[in-house]
Amino acid sequence: MAVITYREALNQALAEEMERDPDVFLMGEEVGVYNGAYKVSKGLLEKFGDMRVVDTPITELGFAGLGVGAAMTGIRPVIEFMTWNFAILAFDQIFNSAAKMRSMSGGQFKMPITFRGPTGAALQLAAQHSQALESQVAHYPGVKVVVPGTPADAKGLLKAAIRDDDPVCVFEGEMLYNLKGEVPEDDDYIIPLGVADLKREGSDVSIITHGKMIHTALQAAAQMEKDGVSVEVLDLRSLRPLDTDAIMRTVAKTNRVVLVEEGWAFGGITATIAAMIQEEAFDMLDAPILRVTQADVPMPYAKAMEKAAKPSVELVIQKLNQVLYR
Amino acid sequence: MADDKKKDTSAAVTETVQAEDRSPEAAAEAGGELDRASQTEHKPRLSDEERMQGLSPDQLKKMMYDMLLARRLEEKVAEAYALGRIGGFCHLYIGQEAVAIGAISAQTPDDYVMTAYREHVHALQCGITPGAIMAELYGRADGCSKGKGGSMHMFSAEHNYLGGHGIVGGQIPLALGVAWKIKYRKEDRVIQVYCGEAAVNQGAFHESLNMAALWKIPMILIVENNRFGMGTAWERASSLYDIYQKATAYAMPSAVADGMDVLDMYRVTKEAVERARSGGGPTLIEARTYRFVGHSMSDPVSGVYRTKEDVENEKANDPIRIFADLLARQNILSQEELEKMDEEVKRVSEEAADFAEKSPEPEVSELYTEIYAEENVNGRLYFDMRER
Ligand SMILES: Cc1ncc(C[n+]2csc(CCOP(=O)(O)OP(=O)(O)O)c2C)c(N)n1
User: Fold this and answer.
1) pLDDT of amino acid B45
2) pLDDT at B44
3) N-terminal to C-terminal alpha carbon distance within chain B
4) Cis before residue B164, ω within 30 degrees of 0?
5) What CATH architecture does domain A2-183 belong to?
6) ipTM of the complex
7) Three-state SS across chain B?
8) Distance CA B321, CA B97 (A)
9) Is the fold of A2-183 the same as that of A197-324?
10) DSSP state for residue A255 in the 8-state scheme
11) Within the 285-324 window of chain A, which residues sit less than 8 Å (CB to CB) from chain B?
C-alpha cells in the first residue's frame, strides 16, 4: 500500500469518483485555478475542466444552495467549504433545504450531495477560524456526517459520501492534511458510512472519539500503557449514522468510558453518546461516564490560552484515571 | 358595448369585482395603480390583437379556465381552512393568479418551476391535480407530498415542479442549481423561480443573481411584487422601489410586467424564456401585482397595514375581470360560456375537496420513512427512544 498524506488521499478520492461518474463535479472557493485553499483539489481543474471544477465567488449560501438544487435534479455536486467556519453562512441551505428535501417532498427527490471542508482548530487562528462544528450539523435528521481521522479513512469515507444518495457532510481535520498513512489504491475502496473502527484494542477503559481527537486519544492510551492500563480507542468515523453497536460492544468490554471531542460540551456529540449509553447500557457501567471537550469559550488567540482551551492528552489521561478510580 | 359587457361579466365571475370603468385613463384619473407597470417601463399601449400575441382562441380559453380554477379552488381552500380541515400556515394567491398562470403558460412541461410558500397555483399550473393539492392541504396520503409537506411544501417530480419552500429567499439558490444542472447536462430547458418582493432584500437573492448572470445560466426569476411582505409595505423595506432595476447591478436583463394582466405576464416571460433557451442567460422579471386576501389565513384581508378601501380599490384590477373583458370584446368567450366555465371549475374544486376528504390519513408508522435513501444502513440514523 502506498503511504500518502490525508490531503492526497482526499484528492485521490475526488479524482477517482469524478473519473468514474461524469455527474460528479466539485465547486467552491479557490478549488480550481488556485488548486484549493488547502490544496485538496490540486490538479483537478487541469484534468476535468472548468465545468467540473468550478471556482465560485465568495458566497457560501449561494453556492451551497446551488449544489442542493443541482442534486435535487440529478447530478452529484461536491461542495467544498474553505473551512466549515464559513459554512455557517450556508447552514440555511444545508439544514432547511438539503436535509429536508426528501422528507418534505414525500420521498420524491433524492439529495446526492457532499459538503466537505476542514474542521477544528489549527494554530492560533482565534475565535472565528477555530471551530469544530460537526455536532451542530449532526443535529439535523436528514443529513449524514462523517469525520475521518486517518488518510485511509479520508479516502474511503469521501468516496462513500460521493456515492451516497443523501446529503453527506465530511469534516476533515484542519491539522490532519499533512498526516501520512497507508491508503489502499483500489478504485472501489469504500468505507461504508456508519461503521466505527477500533483504532486500538484494550480491556480496562474505552475512549470513544472521532476525527483529529483519535490521535490525542491514542497518545493518551500509549502513555497509560506504560502505567499498565489497557485503553481501547474507538473511532466513530461516522456520527450519523452512528455505530451504536460498536459503542455498546466497547462499553460491555471495559465497563468504563471517557468520551472525547474537539467541539464544545454543550449539546455536543459526547453529550448525545453519554445520554445514549446511560439510557441503554447503564447496567454495564462501573463508573460515571466522563467527557473531554474544548473549553466552553470562543477560542482565544494567545498561544498558552489556546493550548489550555483545547482538549489535551493530559486532560484525557486525567479523566481516564478518574473513571478507573486511580 | 365593451363597457356593458364588462358589467355583465363582473357579476358572473366574482363578487369581488366592481363593475367600473377601468380604462388606463380612468385609473390614472383616479390615481389608481392600474398602469403602474407601463408607466415605469414606458412601454407603448398595446392593442387587443398585440396583447393576444397570436395565441389561439383555445389557448386563450385555457388560460381563462386556469385562472378561474385557481380562484375557485383557493376559495374552496379558504372554506376548508375555516372549517378546520386544513391546518398550519396557508397562504392564498387570490388576486395574483395572472402572474403564475401567464408565466408558466410561456414555457413547456419539460421546464422547471420552483417557488416559495404561496404556491398552490404554481403547483396546479404545473399539472398537479386539484385533488392531489387539496389532499396535501388536508395532510392526506394522496397529497402530492404524501401529506408530509402541506401548503408550503408541495412537490411533483413528475411535473418538474420543485416546490414549495418556506424560508424567504431560500429557494433562489436552489433554482440556481437547477439552472446549473441544465447547463451541465446541456439540456434544452429553463427554470422559472418565483419569490415575493420581500425576498429581494435577502443575501440569497443577490448571491444568486450574481452567479446566474456570471455563468449565463437559464434561470428566470420572477419577483411577485404584491407590495407587502406580511405587513411591511415595500417602500418601508427597500431603499430602491423599482425591483427590476436591481438586475442592472448584475448586468442582467430585466423587465417589469403587469402582474394583473395574464397576457402581459405571458409576453414578458416568453421573451425571457426564449432568451434563456438560446443561451442568453437569466432574466429578472418584476411582476406588479396585489393580493386581495390577507398574508395568510390568520391575517384579515386588510389588516393594520392597509385599509379595506385600499383593497377594494385594487380589486378594480382583478386579473380575471381584465382578461374576461378582453375575451368578451374579442368574441372569444361569451358571458354564457364564462358562466359555464365558472360552474365547471366550481365543480372541479368541490370534487377536489371530496377527494381530499376521502383520502386516508398517512400511516403514522411512515414517520421514519423517506428521510434517508436507505433505511437499513449500518449504525443508527435516529436518536430518540421511539425507535427502540
Ligand atoms: C427567512 C425568513 N424570515 C421570515 C419568514 C417569515 N415570513 C414568512 S412570509 C414573510 C413575508 C414575505 O413576503 P414576500 O416575500 O413579499 O412574499 P409574499 O408573502 O408577499 O408572497 C415572512 C416575513 C420566513 N418564512 N423566512
Assistant:
1) 84
2) 63
3) 74
4) yes
5) 3-Layer(aba) Sandwich (3.40)
6) 0.93
7) CHHHHHHHHHHHHCCCCCCCCCCHHHHHHCCCCCCHHHHHHCCCCCCHHHHHCCCCHHHHHHHHHHHHHHHHHHHHHHHHHHCCCCCCCCCCCCCCHHHHHHHHCCCCCCCEEEECCCCHHHHHHCCCCHHHHHHHHCCCCCCCCCCCCCCCCCCECCCCEEEECCCCCCHHHHHHHHHHHHHHCCCCCCEEEEEEHHHHHCHHHHHHHHHHHHHCCCEEEEEEECCEECCEEHHHCCCCCCHHHHHHHHCCCEEEEECCCHHHHHHHHHHHHHHHHCCCCCEEEEEECCCCCCCCCCCCCCCCCCCHHHHHHHHHHCHHHHHHHHHHHCCCCCHHHHHHHHHHHHHHHHHHHHHHHHCCCCCHHHHHCCCCCCCCCCCECCCCHHHC
8) 12
9) yes
10) S
11) none
Per-residue pLDDT tens over the stretch A302-322? 999 999 999 999 999 999 999
Are residues A72 and B174, on separate chains, in Cβ contact within 8 Å? yes
Residue type (1 letter), A240: R
From the CB of B230, is ligand 1 less than 6 Å away? Answer: yes
Catalytic machinery residues of A = 60, 129
Note whether residue B374 is domain-resident: no
Q: Which atom of ligand 1 is nearest to B166's Cα? A: 25
What is the mean predicted confidence (pLDDT) over B269-298? 97
Is B229 touching ligand 1 by the criterion CB < 6 Å? yes
Could you identify the residue written with the cell 471537550? A293
0.90 exceeded by the pTM? yes
pLDDT lower than 50: segments of chain A: none
Ligand 1 atom closest to the Cα of residue B167 is 26
The band of B376, judged by pLDDT with boundaries at 50, 70 and 90, is confident
pLDDT digits (tens, 9 = 90+) for B14-52: 443 333 444 444 444 443 343 444 444 445 689 999 999
* A75 touches B: beta carbon within 8 Å: yes
Asked, for residue B37, whether it belongs to a domain, the answer is: no
Domain A197-324 CATH assignment equals 3.30.460.10:
no
CATH number at residue B89: 3.40.50.970
How many domains are contained in chain B? 1
- The yes-or-no verdict on residue B265 having pLDDT over 70 is yes
A-chain residues within 8 Å CB-CB of B373?
Answer: 102, 110, 164-166
Residue-range definition of the domain harbouring residue B332 = 48-356
What is the grid cell recorded at B241?
Answer: 422601489
Q: Say which amino acid occupies B322.
A: I
**Quick check: A103 and B370 CB within 8 A?**
yes
